[in-house]
Write a structure and sequence with these properties.
Blueprint: H1 2-14, H2 18-23, H3 39-53, H4 58-70, H5 74-86, H6 95-106, H7 110-127, H8 132-138, H9 144-152, H10 155-159, H11 164-174, H12 180-193, H13 198-208, H14 214-220, H15 226-233
Helix pairs in contact: 1-3, 3-5, 4-5, 5-7, 7-9, 8-9, 8-11, 9-12, 11-12, 12-14
Length: about 240
Amino acid sequence: MNSIINDLREELKANTDSQTQKSFQRFFKEEVKYYGVKVPTVYKIAKQYWKQVKTLSKQEIFCLCEQLFASNYTEEAFVVSSWLPEYMENLVPSDLATFKVWIEKYINNWAKCDGFCNHTVGDFLQKYPHLVGEVVGWSKSDNRWLKRASAVSLIVPAKKGCFLQDAFEICDLLLTDGDDMVQKGYGWLLKEESRMHQSEVFNYVMKNRKSMPRTALRYAIELMPKELKAQAMRKD
């Protein structure tokens, strides 16, 4: 297994892009650790190595994923985000507890959070919808990334119109959170729910717009018609 990790890391280093290296940090407020590899290239490399990894046992695969997270390199976290959706048929309900631990322990920027939660956790919830309540509970955490994770894990299901009431429950819990990463996360969730449930999301926004931070509000109404946006944004 160590040879897989070492070879993967050498491959990432070999694909460092000078422009990506120069611009990477500007997308983040916090200091991030990165090689400077273009995202499509990272996923191409991840797919290449998955051919070897998928033959391993589940314990070995999870061990590799944890090693990649533990390195703190953003691109290595992206590799995990590429691998686990491919392994979805082998995941069981108890794995959600492992995902929560990984988020609390290793996720420290929005890109790692969204990459992991949009598809790994999002696909997992579509497989096991009865577990959505546990993810709703993450929004009560003191950990900013677990709070954001509670919202962005529902992004992909939301595009299909799923989990609307759970999304509202998450937004209720995060409504006045002062962290802009959390505000953007739940605002994004509302935006995606509005694709299939525009009137319900609009009513939710109108009911809460006086206490909802403007950052979250702007995200929530992004896909709505101009007249609805104007109503939501008025300052009366």
